[in-house]
Design brief:
homotetramer; alpha/beta; Rossmann fold; seven-stranded parallel beta sheet; seven-stranded mixed beta sheet; 11 helices; 31% helix; 21% strand
């Protein structure tokens, strides 16, 4: 049986190498081509010894494949992706280049003019649980950012149900791998170890994505979102804590209300393999290395606020894993293929 | 010259041992007596090799001292402290036993009936920057909790100035030492490492303390506070991120407003040695091992919300350091004596 | 198709839970029964949320299975294992209870008299690469200790080839999970974080195992081994650095000698899926979560000493993974079944 | 009273910034001038917020001082230091440029020809405990490397006493700050975290320094030293484990021999404030942030080998602290001035 051929553009970042790891275990597709910039001409196993068995040479150009993942930085990704689409290759783009529907957001948030605004309309936002049908028939999927994945999954049921006022605080805590493999002082071990900090207080690039998607879920309302990301001394994981006032009278502010809330979340995610509504506050470690998202909704009885905590592995459900989940749909494979591994604990 | 004699009740917890470290460098007082429970009869240096030079035996009962620190757990601390006060010894209590003014809070939050409600009125809440004068003349100081220290210092200027609506979210991130030296699964290395989680979503014991103190600063208003603590994979440090709606019209939602805000904070903390209003989001590592609190107030232009981030070392400004700051005042010593060391970095 | 039924005794330690994780992904066997002590009666997913999908109740007694893993502490493990053998159940014992051939070692190193010395002869030492054939036909396999796995694999080719004098230094560095899930001060986060120490300088329990096995490889010689384990602030991984004088004249002390040495190691491990002889000093992270062992042999030109560095994940190749590798052989399944996942990086 | 003026060349590396921290607390000297390369013109507190109170501008050239520390990289340090000496300024050089007595070692190990070989004879090797008198009258002190400090202090008593054969294995484990503040992949958080590795197996630059100094202690013998450094996932600390065969008959291989050994070490270090011979295997954490070196010598009874474990904070006793210890001597101040702080724990 011939496996479906897939490739990775820019395999040497953390999203790229995680894609390679997950694809190496996928039973239905074969990773046949990977590209890199400074590392072209080297064996993949030279750079990443744990992938030595893949026996792939890093190339400058992608070979013929059925589907490609782009793990390029923004702006450059669009430049790589457009020709691939023209060659008839399906693409899952892990960059931000096709996530925002409004082209005017790109100059503001990403400092470039989008080269193909028409593709923004065509591209499907790849939060699988929300756009499953459209993803299945898409030729271009914009894989969500790591923070938006955790935040939107945490808030979608409440927003959709009109349970909360549009005054939302999203306080996210991320491991350092989210800052990428490019060397920078904030990711230097002795600086990041035994430290935590808030950053991007003036507005993080993932904010417009969160606003766009939560807005879609509550037409007519424009959510007022404050989003503050934090850097934590760990490699993987994002924990997102969301706060919003409950619409008065929607839920009793007691354990019964909590039960109703939990039921509403469970109904929303019924049948989802990768999203689990959990009884206790989840730990990022419970998702380590896996494609799962754990969500714990609760009520602050004293203040009538909704609190939702979600956990993901930023490199899996927040990047490479969700990209493969989307690929499975695009290739008409069962959505969970190659992604069922539980977290590694401890 | 004879140094003033001080003692520590329950030196073997992390607050106790940090007190011993800081006192060992103090030029005006001498640590002459320390007590412990299971370790009584051992040399302090056997349990804590870094303090071997102190040459103290761990006792069951405190010897005669001029001032005592209690680092006992709540409820037991009151039992130890009351006889000391009766003997005429000044006390800084690091437990929660004298922090809350309303005795009815103790059964609810701490599960015991307070033995001496009259002392709750007398005790001074030891957030030095807010109660300096009262501390100087107190015989009993209730040293604040680690979370309240970071949260109250972050919010006091805004609350006092009537800048924010009383809808406050406090999202705190703490290192594991805050959970103490007592063995528990959540502090087991392989569980806590490379992990983060939210906890006490139904209400943390430090909440009433925060409500009490922020309420004092805005008489007539009852702040609606949601407080969620998080555990981070690091030993020391608390970063607190606070969110609240600005009262409409008080500040322009732009850089000018940010400048005004910063100025208001700087005025509030003018002359304070240990509290610094900083230009950039602070790092917990910038306070590591020191008694400093760094505060960064800013405005979310889009939503009109105040965001304030503060950092402390939970064992120093959040416990032992602030206790010594209070001791200095109670003993009529310069407030910063023995506490001026900068953070250790990296 | 009916899967083969397997069980785990004491699933709640780190070796046990890692067995459950790996078995949950195994295509040919089904984990049908797990036991625990204090946790009996709870669902496995209550204790370990990442395994919630297994839907197993923790029992006090093992149900009927074809093969059982014992992850009990030493002495208690023998008590559990012996009745199982009598019931005709094959056993892989992860404890030390059947590793040592000489029963007189047990009182000395483990402080108990072995209940069934005759089984010590029958039990096969489960270092798969050395005892593959015997394991395949065994009913009782004594899974090696984590340190011995790394040390013996590092030294076996050199010892077997008579390349080194019997003066061996083994300096091992282990992550904290090796100390188990039982609470103890040395594994308390704030103590173990940002710390390293040597321990068991008077003799670690894994030493007799290393002496026994290296002695088997060089009959007539009695290796003089110094073994010092160290605890490192990380969860998983053992890095072992071995030093021994080369027998004079066996290898030129230059790059040519290094090439010969590498070739000798590659020949020794030819065809092995899980043992890789690598060109550069390996990182424990390159084995994280996987069953691989990476070995880097080299020569100190100046002193004529062999240096060999090996890396494993202590919970996988050092415990649960190797146990399943052995199970595969005992059940006549391909040795690598369910174990091929590469390391998770970063 | 006028304080003595001192300066730091290249304050922005980790040794430089640690010097600045320690000097900021020194009662007898004042840090009046610091230089940097890319950061010249900025305030020190901009780069290192914990030092904001120092109120120093980073310069390109050192102002007039009585003594200067050079924290420049090797080769460049000599270029900076020589003119200072000519200006009559005393220098403690933290680089390797004046550590080796034999100029022919520089091209081999450091890849440059030494510009002033005559200064190699004059420079005093700044391991304070071994060269106290010479340091006191020196105008140029070559501060030891971090690894040599731990290794030489661990072995000096045994070597000096002729206790061991000259076959020495030194296995060192260092925190990541030892690799400096310059960005590199091996110090990138996600790479270094939860990882350990051996490096420089072909010969580390600190080896000739160790050979030179241990050779000085045992004239007539040329020690055969294998030195392998390892990188550990922590910021600070070096633990060094040393192994060597005891000269036959020198010590009984039992507890009595251990007592004799300990006594010999205690006698050697009698009166030393910063070196402590300890009863139990020391932890790097017991030296965190302090200038102490803890040493634990013991005997492997089975093999007749000496094992010595030592711990230091690589940035303090291994760099900045020892440099100030030397400065104190050179300025005729009590050796421990400004350096007595105990470790910070936990």
């Amino acid at each position: 049986m011939n496996k479906i051929k897939v490739g990775i553009i820019n395999v040497t970042g953390y999203a790229g190498v995680e894609l390679a790891r997950l694809l190496s275990q996928h039973p239905e597709v074969e990773l046949t081509s990977v590209t890199g910039r400074s590392t072209a001409g080297k064996k993949l196993g030279e750079i990443f010894p744990h992938l030595a068995s893949l026996d792939l040479m890093i190339q400058t150009e992608l070979s013929e494949v059925d589907l490609a993942f782009s793990a390029m930085p923004h702006q450059q990704s669009a430049e790589e992706v457009i020709p691939l689409l023209n060659r008839g290759i399906k693409v899952v783009d892990i960059s931000a280049d096709f996530r925002l529907k409004d082209e005017t957001e790109y100059p503001h948030w990403y400092n470039f003019t989008h080269p193909t605004p028409e593709l923004l309309k065509e591209a499907v936002y790849g939060l699988t649980e929300l756009y499953r049908a459209q993803i299945a028939s898409a030729r271009l999927v914009a894989n969500p950012g790591c923070y938006p994945t955790g935040a939107i999954l945490a808030l979608a049921p409440a927003v959709k149900a009109g349970l909360i006022e549009p005054d939302i605080i999203i306080d996210s805590k991320s491991g350092v791998s989210g800052a990428g493999r490019t060397l920078k002082l904030q990711s230097h071990y002795s600086e990041a170890n035994e430290d935590t900090t808030a950053y991007a207080l003036a507005g993080h690039r993932h904010l417009p994505e969160i606003i766009q998607e939560l807005g879609m879920l509550s037409p007519g309302q424009s959510p007022e979102i404050t989003f503050v990301p934090h850097l934590l001394p760990m490699t993987r994981g994002i924990l997102t804590t969301c706060y919003a006032p409950l619409v008065s009278g929607k839920l009793p502010l007691n354990e019964e209300g909590e039960e109703e809330l939990k039921q509403l979340y469970q109904d929303f995610y019924m049948g989802e393999f990768f999203v689990k509504v959990v009884e206790l506050p989840p730990h990022t470690k419970h998702t380590w290395g896996s494609n799962f998202c754990l969500i714990h909704p609760t009520i602050d009885h004293r203040t009538g606020r909704l609190i939702v905590v979600s956990c993901i592995d930023n490199l899996v459900k927040g990047a490479a894993g969700q990209a493969i989940q989307n690929m499975n749909l695009m290739l008409d494979l069962p959505e969970t293929t190659g992604l069922k591994s539980p977290a590694i604990y401890p």
